[in-house]
Amino acid sequence: MNPAGTPPAEPAPSPDDRRRWQALGVGLVAAFMTLLDVSIVNVAVPSMDRSLGASPSDLQWVLSGYALTFGLVLVSAGRFGDARGRRTAFVFGIALFTLASALAGLSPSPAWLIAARLLQGAAAGVVNPQVTGLIQELFQGPERGRPFGLLGATIGISTAVGPLLGGLLIAVGGEEHGWRWVFFVNVPVGVLTVVLGWRLLPARPAGPPDHRRLDPVGVLLLGAGVLLVLLPLVQQEWRNPAKWLLVPVGLLTLAGFGAWERWYARRQEPLFDLGLFGFRSYALGSLIALVYFGGFTAIFFIFTLYLQNGLGYSALVAGLAITPFALGSAAASALGGRIVDRYGRPLVAAGLLTVVVGLGAVVVVLDLAPGGVPVPWLTAAPLLVAGLGSGLVIAPNQTLTLSQVPVRQAGSGAGMLQTGQRIGSAAGIAAVGSVFFSSLAASDGDFPLAFRHSLLLAAGVIALALVAALVDVTLGHRRHDERHGRHDSPPP
Prior knowledge:
Blueprint: H1 15-39, H2 45-52, H3 56-84, H4 86-105, H5 110-138, H6 145-173, H7 178-184, H8 186-200, H9 216-234, H10 246-265, H11 280-310, H12 315-343, H13 345-368, H14 375-391, H15 394-401, H16 410-442, H17 447-483
Helix pairs in contact: 1-5, 1-6, 1-8, 3-4, 3-5, 3-9, 3-16, 4-5, 4-7, 4-8, 5-16, 6-7, 6-12, 6-15, 9-10, 9-16, 11-12, 11-15, 11-16, 11-17, 12-14, 12-15, 13-14, 13-17, 16-17
C-alpha cells in the first residue's frame, strides 16, 4: 500500500503490448466479417430471387459456393503466412474480400453473383488462418486464453447474428434490393481493415523467411480432396445419388495427400506437418471441432427454415429468435478463454453437455408449451443455455488444440483445423437438412415435427463430440496417474 492507503496503480501497458492487442482487434474484425458471410446470406435468398430471377440451383451456388472455396484454400493460405509473413496474406485476403463484396452487391445477374461469392469465399479462406496464427505468434502460453476466448466469441456471434443483421439490412434496403446491402456493408469495414492491418500486423514471419517452394503437389492434392468431399455435401440441388461417389474418391485423394506429405517432409518443409496429429491435443481437438461444427451450424439452418417457411415469421424476427444463442455464446466464450488453462478439456466436455441439454430443452418446450405462445419466446431460454455451452466449446477447444503447435506452423495447423470445421459444417447441414426435408415430405408439411426430428439429430451429432471430449479427458487422467506412479492394482 502507498502512504495514502490506496493500492499502487498497475503499470501502464507497454507500447508493444498495446500494439499486439490492436493487431488482434483488427484480426477479430476481419474474422467477424468473413464468418458473418457464411450465415447472413441465408435470409437474403427471397430478396435475391425477386431481384435477379435466380433459379433454385443458382441460389444453392450462392449459398454453398462461399463455403466451398472458403474450405479449399485454408491450409495453403496458412502455410503461406507461416513462411512469408501473415501481414501480406492478411491484407491481400481482406482487399480481395472487399472487392468481391462490392462485385456481389453490384451483381446484374445470377452468374455474376455466383462468381463473386466464389471469389469472396476464397478470400475469406486466405484471411482466417492468419488471424489464428497471429494469436499464436503474438501471445505465449496461458496468455493465449484471453485472445482465443475473444476469437471464440467472434465465431459464435458471427454465426448466430448473421440472420438478424441480414434481416435488418433487408428491412432498410427494401424487399427487392435489400440483399445488396448484405454485401455493401463489408466495403467500408474492409477498406479500414486493410489500412489498419498493414499498419499494425507484424511484417515478417515468426521465424526466418522460407523462400522455398510451397509444396505445389501438396496444394493440388489437398485442394482436390477437399473439393471432392465438399461438393456433394454443399450441392443439395444435385439429385443424382451418384454424386456421393465423389466422397470416397475425395477421401482417397486426401489419403494420397497424406502419403505425399510424409515423403515430402523428408526433403523440405511440407504444406502440412502430419506430425501435428501425433499430439493428442491436436488430434482429438480437431475431431471435436469437426463433429461439433457438424451439429452447431446446422441448428441455425433448420431453425431459420422453421420460423420463416413454416411459421411465416419475417427474416428480422427469425434473426432475433437466434439472438439468445449468440449472447450466451459471446459471454461464455470470453469466460472460457480465461479459465481454459485451469480446467482444460473437462471445460469443453461441460460445454458440450450444456449444448445438448439446451437443445433437448428446445424440443421439450415446443412439445409441452400451450398453443398461442410465440415460438421465439418459447425457445429464448433454452437457446441461451445452449449458447452458453457453445461458448465453453469453441474458444477453449481451439486454445487446447493449438497449444502444442509450433509458432512456425501456426497458420497451417489452424488452417487444417478450420478445414475440418468447414467439412463438418457442410456434412452437418446436408445430413440434418435431409432429415428436415424428408420429415416434412413424410408428414405432409408438418414443420414443427420436421424441426424436432432434425434438431434431435443435431443434438445427437454434438453428443458424439462430447464422447470424443470424454475420451480425451480419460486419457489425460490416465497419463497423469502414470506419470505420478498411481497405478491401480487388484487387492491381494
